[in-house]
Amino acid sequence: MPQLTNDQVQLVREVLTPDFSALDTEDSIDDSEFEKVKGKAKRDLAQVNRLLKQETRQSSSAVTRAVEAMPNQWLLWLMDGAIPYLNHGLLTLTRRNDRFLRIIKACKQVLSLDATMTPDRLASLFGVGKAEIYHCAVEQAPNNNLEILKIEDLGRLGMQRGADQDRRVEAVVNHYRSVDPTTKVIDFKKFSQDGAWWRDSRGSNDFKDCNTLVLVGTPSRNVEAVRAEYLALGNNPDRFQAYYDALIKTDILQAIGRIRALCRRNEQLRIVILSDFPIVVPGMKVVRSGDITPEALPKAEHTIVKCAEATKSLIDQGLKPPRPP
Q1: Of 80, 88, 203, 290, which residue is least crowded by CB atoms under 10 Å?
Q2: Cα separation of 259 and 262, whole Å?
Q3: What is the pLDDT of residues 53-86, one digit of tens each?
Q4: How far is CA 122 from the centre of its chain?
């Protein structure tokens, strides 16, 4: 979904500039022409003018249709100060909510409760300087009851996935369901089984009773929508990638918090992250999918393992494995 260039924005403005010629309901001779003639010539000119009007006059229904076909002129107003981008063929405009900012600035104090909100982002949202924000966080003891595993060899696991990726993800999930019946999975809504990114991965207690929570995929928001919001808030375009990556990190941290490990100190819990997004969490261990279960190995490696297992089975039965021709 590409962002519109300045030339494209100008083209949209030109297309939306109204053509009022459709409201000229009839043609006629200019009044100045009548000042140049007198007598019979003037009467003849008046007759020609009447015939011209009769011939070119449009019906009221034709005029109505022409007006309805004109572009919506309010869109020109919306585009002033807005950040435009194309979203599945639709023009989407993002503007800063000035009313929200007025409400914030009218308050003596504003309390924002968010476990992963950074002072930089909050300053941008509230339209204030970072120095005006007092950031207070709770110092947490290590989560010795929480094991965090990160499987990176399955790739980013976005909305578009290959058949082999689907097979390997399913193998990992089935493995944990077999060893822990309380296992729950958060994935994109398109693939979700127990919960979906953003809908259930923030501010939810739906997973507080499971002992294993599998987080599938990299929670990447619509990049152009995020960019439009970022620019509409007056942020530096050169720092957008860092801002976007920070959003992904906060979404992953929020999802990890759904298991409520701090409230379950006497239980052994496990988080399994399936993504190659670079994130570091205290106590996290990076493993390969094959370390979890051989069924999750890449296709070629999986075939080799199956062949080796079949060969061993034949040998254990006292049979000689067939030799290749």
Answers
A1: 88
A2: 9
A3: 666 666 666 666 665 666 666 566 667 778 888 8
A4: 20
What is d(CA 54, CA 64) in angstroms, rounded to the nearest whole number?
19
CB-count exposure of residue 325 (10 Å: 0-12, 13-18, 19+): exposed
Distance from the Cα of residue 322 to its chain's centroid = 54
Measured distance CA(51)–CA(255) in Å, rounded: 77
User: Cα–Cα distance between 224 and 9 in angstroms, integer?
Assistant: 16
Check: CB of residue 218 under 8 Å from CB of residue 208.
Answer: no
Calculate ∠ Cα 121-127-133, nearest 5°. Answer: 60
Which 8-state DSSP code applies to residue 149?
E
Contact 164, 279 (CB under 8 A): no
**What is the end-to-end Cα distance of the chain in Å, rounded?**
53
Residue-range domain boundaries for the chain: 19-70, 96-139, 146-298
Taking only the tens place, the pLDDT of each residue in 91-134 is: 888 888 888 888 888 888 999 988 888 888 999 888 888 899 99
With contact defined as beta carbons under 8 Å apart, do 194 and 214 qualify? no
Q: CA nearest 175: which of 271, 293, 273, 270?
A: 293
What length is written for the chain? 325
* C-alpha–C-alpha distance, residues 261 and 271, integer Å: 10
Q: Is the pLDDT of residue 164 over 80?
A: yes
271: helix, strand or coil: strand
Q: Cα(158)–Cα(223) distance, rounded to whole angstroms?
A: 13
The answer to whether the Cα torsion of 264, 270, 273, 279 is positive or negative is: positive
In 3-state terms, what secondary structure has residue 14?
helix
Written as six digits, the tokens of 28 are: 């006629």
The residues near 111 (Cβ < 8 Å, ≥ 6 apart) are none
What is the CATH T-level fold of the domain 146-298, as seen in this structure? Answer: Rossmann fold (3.40.50)
Q: If you write DSSP's letter for every residue of 164-224 in order, what string do you get?
A: HHHHHHHHHHHHHHHH-TT-EEEE-TTT-SSEETTTTSSS--TTTT-SEEEEES-----HH
